[in-house]
User: What shape does this take?
Amino acid sequence: MELSLWTYEGPPHVGAIRVAASMEGVHLLLHSPQGDTYADLLFTMIERHKRRPPVTYTTFQARDLGDDTANLVLRAAADACQHHQPQLLLVGDSCTAELLQDQPGTLVNGAGLPIPVIPLEMLAYSRKENWGASETLYSLVRGLLSARAPAPGGERPTREPDRAPSVNLLGPSSLGFRCRDDVREISELLERVGVRVNVVAPLGASPGDLLRIPEADANVCLYPEVADTTCDWLKRSFGQPVIRTVPIGVGATRDFLREVTEVTGADVSGVLDDEFSNLPWYSRSVDSTYLTGKRVFIFADASHAVAAARIASEELGFDVVGLGTYAREQARDVRQMAKSLGLEALITDDYLVVERAVADLQPELVLGTQMERHIAKRQGIGCAVISTPAHVQDYPARYSPQMGFEGANVIFDSWVHPLMMGLEEHLLTMFREDFEFNEQVTASHLASGGGSHERAAPQPAADAASLTLAWDADAEQELKKIPFFVRGKARRNTERYAAERGLETIDLDTLYEAKAHFSN
Amino acid sequence: MSSAVLASDSTLQARQERGQRAVFCGLTSIVWLHRKIQDAFFLVVGSRTCAHLLQSAAGVMIFAEPRFATAILQDKDLAGLADCNEELDRVVGQLVERRPDIKTVFLVGSCPSEVIKLDLGNAAQRLQRNHGGKVSFVDFTGSGIETTFTQGEDSCLQRLAGELPGDDGVEQLLVVGTLADIVEDQFRRLFDALGIPAVRFFPGRRAEELPPVGAGTRVLLAQPWLGDTSRALAERGATLLPAPYPLGAEGTLAWLRAAADAFGVSAARFDEVTSAPYQRAVKALAIHRERLAGQTVSLLPDSQLEIPLARFLAEECGMQLGEVGTPFLEQALMAEELARLPEDTELTEGQDLEPQLARLRAARPDLTVCGLGIANPLEAEGLRTKWSIELVFTPIQGFDQAADLAGLFTRPLAREQRLGGFQWS
Assistant: This one.
């Protein structure tokens, strides 16, 4: 048993619904009790789908349990086929139905339906949503293609020389993070280097499209959380190589293009230049100097966490002070990245542990999921959402990919924005005590209008340290001469220095000893 | 309670439907119960699905550490019930240690806990002993197998009804069903002004403060989903006051009158107390009535509020009723509402989703009241909707909320009018 207050991932069958809802012509029959239909609102409200997800729920109740739930499954399957006319039926069960052991997949498979039936094993008591999505895509692809796999040891036919190289983009799904825009960005990027996108799956694919997957030269594992298992199987069964670099960030996008070259022979030299992304120049422009060494905390699904860590450290010059993921299955990559940054990865799906980590580390920016957005908001820290689980505001109307060169632009803006806002707040706080711009005087741009009215004096900020520490008058005066934008830091550092040494009063010497101590 | 009191004069018959249902399970009630009962913690013993449902229904993660959680069953818990009970004790220990402010823990049963026959009643007694009376433990079920959406509250209050102390025959009015605090305070002022001697609300704001019940108790239901609770209170000797529900000016007036009559409040006193707020409500409703009158509305089965809402929309807002669906129909609890519905109202009990949606598409009402999962797809088909979950989270009862309630229905229509010429697809 595991005590859970808020969860990062839903149950595995929600992953199955995500795959079904991504596709055309696929319907999911879900053996599930009344109430499990709540999952519909994730799609229709959070992602604003105009259709209900293509799911028929058996919605059994107590009275059905005494009766025959197996017959209910068969009736629901027949109704679903008649009403929705799908080309393929997925059959699975949610947690409660798994306990009933009705074996709906086997039942429906034997019912003689006119369409292919693919049973799903969702393992509700040991697995979660992303695994469910991955397993569903894998079951679909294997179910449709295993009979077509060439005999072991057979050679993959070589592409005819006049045909453009092609790849499949695997993994983008409904309720994934910015998938709609990432697919467009990466498709356009590949098109520029002469690589054709053969099939995108599951997003927008039909069962017929899945049958065409083996025609491509390689598979791009765009979202490893959903597509890793499928890509591995396609490599084993059809000899299709896998392009594994997730193209989030300028460096990763360039690496991705190089990998495309290695695998397909396409010439990517024309698009490796900076001109396709503003991030490298914006990051070097003097305005970005203040980004140097910003303390950033990252917590997300594994692929977005790793990508964010690389961008933060290599492309924006931040200090990554914490890195972690809720996805235990993919924790290895995150651990590796953390190690390379001199950190220990935080692997947990308990958001309270994450909240404590943020409180301890005191970062200046949090990059995370909607859970971290709330954590950051409570602690007054700027935040950008970089991964699922995300809420309705993270499915924006505008084009805003994370991948490719335009994705890097979007990332620059959306990560730097909360820091700029943070800086504004900082300036406002600092100018509180300024002779010219304090809160008692009329704002300068209104001064010509006259009418200087007195405003309430601000409460001096007091933290635990300053309650017990006294500044003598000379030290206090000296502190005021320090430029406002580092004054707060100087005060905090001096007080920390004094507290650690058990001093009760801070004088001029303490101030400068602390300065020397912290500048080492 | 005697059946004569509950007999319906209405000749309305509901068509029975059975098939796929698009409704929440009873666990959803926790979302408003935990806000009402401020010192209680709701621990669902269930699966990751239960946890996911709760946070999806609660919308966003507003509360840093909410007073609800899920003890998620895992593979090893299913191997043996002895271990499962041990695990539950461990998780509860963790919880109690973490939240010393919590005085009552509700152990909430779910679909999986019921299927594996985990006895939470026993668990509650055991935990009560183990924690030496410092924390109370109460079990109830919110499973989708046993309960539909708002029935979770019925299940909770029914369970508490057995724990209430006796009233020693002392006369009191017991208002039953979760109301927003502001609404509760308004009603308390009205009952005080009417001179009703003792008025208590159930559930109260603190789990420990259980109201007494017995032969002196008159029960007035504030919510229409409390069938089991009202029967449990009747078994304790209480009398149920037949009344419509306090929605709208007329509904609230009739609801208050049922209490006033039971306590022998004079007609003059009743008019004196109620006329000003009643007139205020009627006046505030008038502007909404202008917009709603003559418009057609259908209600899909969801919260059990459908019949009282249909009455309010027809009687007080002048709307034309299309199909009125309800997850289940308790004639006894709905008698006063059904009697006020137009005689040709098309009532459906239960649900078979696809045929019901087909009927809706054929009828194309001006407004459809439906669950959150269906609202956007219907909007995309050009139908205007009001999602019903808002009706259980928003204060809508009483005179001073009558116009707010109507406003929930005028807003989608006003929006349609503003955007009418603006093609979206």
